[in-house]
Amino acid sequence: MATIRWQSGPRGASDLDRLRQEVDQLFNSLTGGDEPFFSRVYPALNLSEDADHYYVRAELPGVKPESLDISVVEGRLLIRGERKESPEEKEVYYHRRERESGFFRRSLNLPGRVAPDKVSAHLKNGVLTVVLPKPEEAKPRKIAVQTT
Amino acid sequence: MRRGKGVHEMKDQEMELKEKKEIKKVAGEGTRPGPVYIPAVDILENANELIVLADMPGVDSKHVDIDLKDNQLTITGRIDRMESDKEVSLYSEFKWGDFYRRFTLSDVIDQSKITAHMENGVLRLVLPKVEKIKPHKIKVVGE
Fold it and tell me: Of B1, B31, B45, B71, which one is least surrounded by beta carbons within 10 A?
């Protein structure tokens, strides 16, 4: 699978460049086409990798670890959970109410193989990080070039 | 002003993704490069206090700044970078950024009693109202 590397455009990149980049991103998205880029499915996800792991991150403010259910099934990462309303006393008036609550369910096709039993997840300051280790055989290996 | 209960019942509802709202320019000094977003907030009021809840994922309690001057409440949150230098982005649906929002408060707040804490990326700010000055009774003296 092609590795798509996203870099922010050069300084002074025009809006058009940025738009083109976003359109490219849309077509190259790893969700396999069944979920468009602006899928409106909560939460938004970022995917990155280093030599040994894939990392999936999501902003989940106000979500507690016990209301999250994360699993890896056949090369797909599934994130399910609930964001509960914070309990407030009855006698309150809302001036503004922009924060949402409810259930969410999101899946992402992983770009390569992972070791499912070694997947870990943690929440810090309302940000979820799922760490998916690559199996030994999928890690890049340095081949020593020998001279004869 | 709306009644709190029953207006936006979100129970058993699937959440929709809302695009993060970016602000282009932040008034004031001490800004750093990178996008700045407007946090989603709830503002509640009861008899004694105003409560502000703000979603600021990625912001540690040490990096929240709250400023109240002349009824202008300013909330600033600085995020900690999560990615290591070795990571390469493959796919991205959202950008990281600091948070900034300013409100004008109509009530007089007792500044010395403001409390704030961050939990799971949500700021909870409690702004106690100044105790109402008791109505001054004017005695009508009869002849």
Answer: B1
